[in-house]
């Protein structure tokens, strides 16, 4: 059992939209990711998804509004809700979601990551 | 759907060892808690537990070692592992654990909270 130092893990990767697994508990993954630009619209039919902003500003576009999430704020996107993360500048986030969650949900795209690295 | 501003939630309570529910996803609770002093030794037979330190320093005593967790670091304590959180000064933490998790695990004490408030 070892603690995880988030800042050290964030130094280990630079690619955007490619979550890395940094912890697992109760069938859930704790992931770190860096976002920049616009992701694809998608939803997760069976999984709620949590975005905790560590650095930067994340805009979560929903079909009816946009929620701006700053450092030390989080948003839980319920299952079945279409959403699109947008980051004008680089943002670092921590994600909590079931181990089964695919990053692009029901929208297969070039951004889809079927296999995630653990770091 | 609304974002959660962690700093604002932390202002809403001051009692120690009394986790507050600030989010729920996939059967898991996101909780905020403030610790100060020594908790009781306990374990959770069926639940892994995650401690993310937001402010202060948390010492997690295990039977064979102590892990010191600083701000922006986290520790996952696996199910069945005896542990005791200790905070010499006030520490604020975010917890992730199944909705079924009892704060003192298998050790009933004055510190046991059977019902948690949502804030």
From TrEMBL, chains A, B:
Gene3D superfamilies reported for this sequence: Jelly Rolls
The organism of origin for this protein: Pedobacter heparinus (strain ATCC 13125 / DSM 2366 / CIP 104194 / JCM 7457 / NBRC 12017 / NCIMB 9290 / NRRL B-14731 / HIM 762-3)
Domain Cupin type-2 intervals: 36-94
Pfam families reported for this sequence: Cupin_2
Highest taxon above the source species: Bacteria
Protein's name according to its UniProt entry: Cupin 2 conserved barrel domain protein
